[in-house]
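As a warm-up, study this chain.
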Amino acid sequence: MATRCECGCGQTTNKAIKTSTRQGYVKGQPMRFVHGHHARVDAVMAKQRQIARRGGPASPAWRGGRSASHAGGYVRVYTGKRGARTLEHRAIMEKTLGRQLLADEVVHHRNGNRKDNRLENLEVLTNAAHVKRHTVERWAKTRAAGKRSL
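Now compare it with the structure written out below.
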């Protein structure tokens, strides 16, 4: 049973004259490569590993830099600054305002959907106003739930 070299050259390989677990040969079975051709495959694999290591837009796995992998359910985007990622709703609001958000400013999602980052769904609030808004909403929900159960 003759087999072809796995490097793609098309040459037939010899049968192994001895078993070598290190090289993957079994006595009497065809070898995977013609002598010296394994280096060709190693070079190709090294090039593929080098391509896969590229980050950001240069990576073949690039999907636009947008992911929903944040623990709070927010969408994160790639900013291009040394692989940095930021929350998309904050980046949209900063771009709209033309400045960075202050330390006490929060971007609120009006409809409560953390993945809905349309500009009309976002508003900037101070941290105190944001807490107050959510407190009022929770109070209204519990009051409405209490009336229904009576």
